[in-house]
Amino acid sequence: MTGTDAGEDSLRNISDTALWVAIYRAMESERPDALFRDPHARRLGGRRGEAIVASLPKARGMAWPMIVRTAVMDEIIVRTVRRDGVRSVVNLAAGLDTRPYRLPVPESLRWLHVDLPGMVDYLRERLTDHSPACGLEFIGADLTERPARRAVFEKVAAAPGPTLAVTEGLLVYLHPEQVAELARDLAAIPSVTGWLIDLGSPRLLEMLRKTWHPQLAAAGAPMIFGPEEGTRFFEPHGWREAEYRPMWNEAMRLNRGPRGAWLWSMMSRFMSRARREELSRLSGIVLLGRV
């Protein structure tokens, strides 16, 4: 990442999506009834993040899924650490994630924050005066390069287990064969017992492409991955669905649905069970366990 707070207001590359999402976290954090508080988000997103959000069609109205995703992943991470004995977290393509600084996790937890070197430097420079709640290691690496990925996973394997892998907002930008390779690489590390992801369906991708495809494609970050078979995609590669949180259901639970959500919820009561199940699988937050 080479971005500063100045520059063009459009997306330039996939790293710019982190500025975009940071502004969403800032929007939520500044609400009186915020689901989470990220005191660093506004500064991390910066003026450029604000400009990106302003330039994208319907960007503010589409903030709710990202906010819900953040809140639900927060819940699952804290639960797996406190209840399930997770001792290490590895966040791959972590962007501008600040969870090690803001989540109530024990000091003994080890957190590996992995992203492109430029993105890691950008985050570290802006958080120099702040201390994480747990043991935090930054790793600058391009995960698309096999040697770099192998070096990262050697560090993951050396971390105290059990280990939770997190890929938030990453898989949608990968080709299916890249996702499969990542799944196999993670499954090859015995200490990685869980993998937290967000997953969309082909129908969701079609909807999002109608809104943002020109901007994302121009930035070299088109949305690609939305498997027809849903979480079953991961089973041949070592992972199975352990927990599925439908995005819409979670939005209703957290009171963060889009405008007019009440009408859609009312209409769903008249749908068939199969239709409701289909819609619940439109998008979700998924905790994968080993097969």
Overall average pLDDT: 93
Structural class of the helices, strands and pairings?
alpha/beta
How many strands appear in the DSSP assignment? Answer: 7
Rg over C-alpha atoms, rounded to the nearest angstrom: 18 Å
Strand proportion, as a percent range, falls in 15-25%
CATH architecture level-2 label:
3-Layer(aba) Sandwich
CATH class reads Alpha Beta
CATH homologous superfamily label: Vaccinia Virus protein VP39
The total tally of domains equals 1
Low-confidence stretches: 1-7
Principal-axis shape equals globular
Task: From the 3D structure, determine the CATH topology.
Answer: Rossmann fold
Amino-to-carboxy terminus distance: 36 Å
Strand order of the largest sheet: 3-2-1-4-5-7-6
Helix fraction by DSSP (H/I, runs of at least 4): 40-55%
Largest sheet: 7 strands, mixed
Please report the number of helical segments.
Answer: 11
SSE string, helices as H and strands as E: HHHEHEHEHEHEHEHHHE
Describe this structure in words.
- The protein has eleven helices and seven strands.
- With 291 residues, it is an alpha/beta fold.
- The radius of gyration is 18 Å and the shape is globular.
Structure characteristics:
single chain, 291 residues, alpha/beta, Rossmann fold, globular, disordered N terminus
In short:
By secondary structure, the chain is α/β, with parallel strands linked by helices.
